[in-house]
Amino acid sequence: MTAPSAPSAADGAEYPIRAIIEAVAEHEGVDVTAIEPPAYEPLYAVVDPEALDALFRSDPSTELSLSFEYAGYDITVSGNGRVDVTDQSTGETTVGRFRE
């Protein structure tokens, strides 16, 4: 999957899908443009990026949370703007943000 451009919502918050890609790239030590096939499964194969972005834009509740697996990572997106990317093999976590 090609990394999406850095769209911003009206309030200046980045979309969660971008924060996920950035956190995976940071953990892997690669540029965000490297998080694409064939090296990585497309993110849209495990989660609908548009639906994910819409969910967290429409409900900025700090109680909202969504978890899924992607490319050997456990991903948790929280309504407070935090994205936790945890390596399933090492337990190391990289934290991203999509809302300040």
What descriptive keywords fit this protein?
100 residues; alpha+beta; 4-stranded antiparallel β-sheet; 2 helices; 23% strand; globular; disordered N terminus
Percentage of residues assigned to helices: 10-25%
pLDDT < 50 stretches: 1-13
N-C termini distance: 26 Å
Strand fraction equals 15-25%
How many β strands by DSSP? 4
Overall mean pLDDT: 85
> Counting H and I runs of at least 4 residues, what is the number of helices?
2
The order of strands across the largest sheet is: 1-2-3-4
Structural class: alpha+beta
Largest sheet: 4 strands, antiparallel
Shape: globular
Q: What Rg do the Cα atoms give?
A: 13 Å
What is the chains' assembly state?
A: single chain
What's the helix-strand series? HHEEEE
Description:
The structure is a single chain. This protein has helices at residues 16-28, 49-58; strands at residues 65-70, 73-78, 82-87, 93-97. With 100 residues, it is α+β, with helices and mostly antiparallel strands. A four-stranded antiparallel β-sheet has the order 1-2-3-4, covered by helices on one side. A hairpin with a 3-residue loop joins strand 2 and strand 3. The longest helix has 13 residues, at 16-28.
